[in-house]
Amino acid sequence: MPYVNVKITRDGVTAAQKAEIVADITATLGRVLGKRPEHTHIVIDEIDPENWGFAGVLTTEYRKQVGG
């Protein structure tokens, strides 16, 4: 039973985009590892940007620095 946890920042990702992610990961596990779709679990966690940090700063601060 594969379990995949995808963590992304909460930035307006649509339900359709999430569905595509789930479908693609499920298909990849089936193709590469022979896992059955009905046994594959995908969880998407959306994290507020102010709760995600990298490069020594919070995502919100990093985006201000790089103009994004």
Radius of gyration: 15 Å
Q: Give the full name of the CATH homologous superfamily.
A: Macrophage Migration Inhibitory Factor
Span of the ends, CA to CA: 38 Å
Overall helicity: 25-40%
Total of domains: 1
Shape: elongated
SS class: alpha+beta
Q: What is the CATH fold-level name?
A: Macrophage Migration Inhibitory Factor
Spatial arrangement of strands, main beta sheet = 1-2
The low-pLDDT segments are none
CATH architecture: 2-Layer Sandwich
The sequence of SSEs as H and E is EHEEEH
Would you give an account of this structure?
The chain has 68 residues and is α+β, with helices and mostly antiparallel strands. It has a single domain, classed as Macrophage Migration Inhibitory Factor (2-Layer Sandwich). 40% of the residues lie in helices and 26% in strands. It contains two helices and four strands, in the order βαβββα. It has a two-stranded parallel sheet. A two-stranded antiparallel ribbon has the order 3-4. Strand 3 and strand 4 form a beta hairpin. The radius of gyration is 15 Å and the shape is elongated. It starts with a strand and ends with a helix. The model has no long low-confidence stretch (mean pLDDT 95).
